[in-house]
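Backbone-to-sequence.
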């Protein structure tokens, strides 16, 4: 309809804004609204959006920035923290979904090759959509959010390897070429990680320190670094997503990550709009109706089966049913990679166009449904939680006591053992207070255990975990957590348990502190401001002593 790309983008933005406003009015998620606008504007609708290199470029830039920001917020110690559960859950879910999906496809009368492609397509969840939803809910830094991001990254690595393998198999004329291709990609991956480690250790901290003198130049470098990382990842045979993510991880340990992440959010969200529009526009509605029944069967399997296997694995590993449930919902859809995998099968001559339409319809159903499931995950758990007890061990060792508590008195329950929390814990213990410290980083928990602290591994926003704490014996509950959402969840959980002691939480700003006081906090700590005030008071005392001694000397 529009030959001019500028007019086309203008129409896209105008209709997306109108669709987003309507979605907000109807209290619907923006992601679904944008996909629907893409269908409306695509070849199946008014044909406004055609194959456009510019729109695809904007979409790829948005994806790269999204994964870059995720990498920025994921410290290396976080990867170590969720590594075992991410690896076991990610691989376990892939194997379970592939095997059961393959059997379902055979039962529906599909050929073996088609069944394999569909089964593999069902295993991968959309890192892009899930991270966007978790970011909007401010749950990326929660326990279930970090675990979910961890096993989604495992899935991304698996799908890259699968696509490389299929491409090599489609092009191979002799057997050994596939093995050579696998060895080559492993070698490239090792070299890429080694290069990033050296840059992270010796180059990037100094470079960023110099660039930080100009905020504009710092942001330009951050965007360039994200795109360069995506480009290198793609050139080496990985995906752009993996490359952009690793670029973010490479500067996650610098003091500038929070500033960069905060300033990139608006640009990221704007560019991601084009990804969702493109996703909707590429859905070919003409081939979808042929497999409606099969699509419904596969969609129900993905929406229910994938979360269940995640809950089973996490329950076996000792996580609470709430953590498993919230993390499991993040795999209740198929990925944009699934559509790419189906298209690859079509190009290799392994699949027919109708099969691609089937995978597309499953994607539309599961992405739409799982978006609502994640947005309303806490409400769903409130209804289903009482019936999920068999997904949880009797002793959930990863989120329960790491040392036996007995019936000893507890003066203070302290949430958070970061730098501020550890310092406060030391001072409280030296002051004679009996302390129980809580954190969801097992490395930190074990470290403080070895130092003689009584600790628990747990999540402050989990009301069921809060119910297991010895609240009746604690005079104070203190949170040194920096995330405002976690502190609000903690305050609400304590109120639900009718806790009658005193509560102290940390805040980043005076405005946030005022909000916590209104929500029931007895004391609000503003670490930087409090430390600055204490330093100023000490300086003033020293100054007055100096003046007094000087005046005394003059008088004499």
């Amino acid at each position: 309809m529009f030959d001019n790309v500028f007019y086309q983008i203008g129409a896209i933005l105008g209709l997306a804004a109108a669709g987003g406003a309507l979605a907000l009015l109807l209290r619907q998620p923006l992601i679904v609204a944008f996909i629907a606008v893409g269908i409306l504007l695509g070849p199946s609708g008014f044909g406004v959006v055609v194959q456009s290199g510019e729109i695809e470029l904007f979409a790829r830039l948005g994806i790269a920035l999204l994964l870059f920001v995720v990498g920025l917020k994921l410290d290396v110690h976080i990867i170590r923290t969720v590594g075992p559960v991410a690896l076991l859950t990610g691989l376990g879910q892939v194997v379970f979904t592939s095997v059961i999906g393959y059997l379902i496809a055979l039962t529906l009368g599909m050929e073996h090759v088609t069944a394999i492609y569909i089964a593999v397509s069902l295993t991968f969840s959309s890192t892009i959509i899930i991270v966007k939803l978790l970011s909007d809910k401010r749950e990326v830094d929660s326990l279930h959010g970090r675990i979910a991001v961890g096993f989604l990254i495992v899935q991304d690595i698996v799908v890259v390897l699968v696509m490389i393998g299929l491409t090599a198999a489609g092009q191979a004329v002799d057997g050994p070429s596939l093995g050579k291709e696998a060895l080559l990609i492993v070698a490239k991956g090792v070299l890429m990680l080694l290069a990033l480690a050296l840059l992270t250790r010796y180059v990037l901290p100094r470079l960023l320190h110099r660039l930080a003198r100009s905020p504009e130049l710092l942001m330009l470098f951050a965007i360039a670094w994200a795109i360069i990382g995506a480009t290198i990842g793609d050139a080496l045979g990985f995906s752009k997503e993996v490359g952009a993510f690793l670029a973010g991880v490479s500067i996650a340990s610098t003091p500038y990550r929070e500033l960069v992440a905060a300033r990139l959010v608006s640009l990221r969200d704007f560019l991601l709009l084009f990804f969702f529009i493109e996703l909707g526009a590429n859905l070919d509605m003409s081939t979808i109706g042929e497999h409606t029944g099969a699509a419904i069967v596969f969609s129900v399997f993905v929406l229910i089966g994938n979360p269940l296997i995640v809950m089973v694995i996490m329950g076996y590993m000792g996580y609470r049913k709430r953590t498993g449930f919230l993390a499991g919902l993040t795999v209740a859809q198929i990925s944009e990679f699934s559509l790419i995998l189906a298209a690859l099968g079509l190009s290799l001559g392994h699949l027919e166009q109708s099969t691609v339409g089937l995978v597309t319809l499953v994607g539309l159903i599961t992405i739409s449904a799982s978006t609502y499931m994640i947005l309303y995950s806490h409400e769903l758990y409130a209804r289903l939680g009482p019936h999920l007890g068999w997904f949880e061990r009797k002793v959930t060792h990863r989120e329960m006591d790491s040392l036996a508590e007995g019936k000893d008195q507890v003066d203070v329950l302290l949430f958070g053992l970061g730098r501020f929390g550890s310092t406060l814990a030391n001072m409280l213990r030296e002051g004679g207070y009996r302390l129980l410290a809580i954190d969801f980083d097992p490395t930190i928990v074990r470290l403080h255990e070895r130092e003689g602290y009584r600790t628990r591994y747990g999540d402050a926003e989990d009301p069921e975990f809060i119910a297991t704490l010895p609240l009746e014996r604690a005079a104070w509950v203190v949170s040194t957590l920096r995330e405002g959402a976690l502190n609000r969840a903690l305050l609400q959980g304590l109120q639900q348990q009718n806790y009658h002691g005193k509560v102290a939480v940390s805040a980043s700003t005076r405005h946030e502190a005022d909000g916590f006081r209104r929500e029931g906090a007895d004391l609000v700590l503003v670490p930087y401001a409090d430390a600055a005030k204490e330093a100023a008071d000490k300086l003033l005392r020293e100054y007055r002593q100096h003046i007094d001694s000087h005046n005394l000397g003059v008088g004499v």
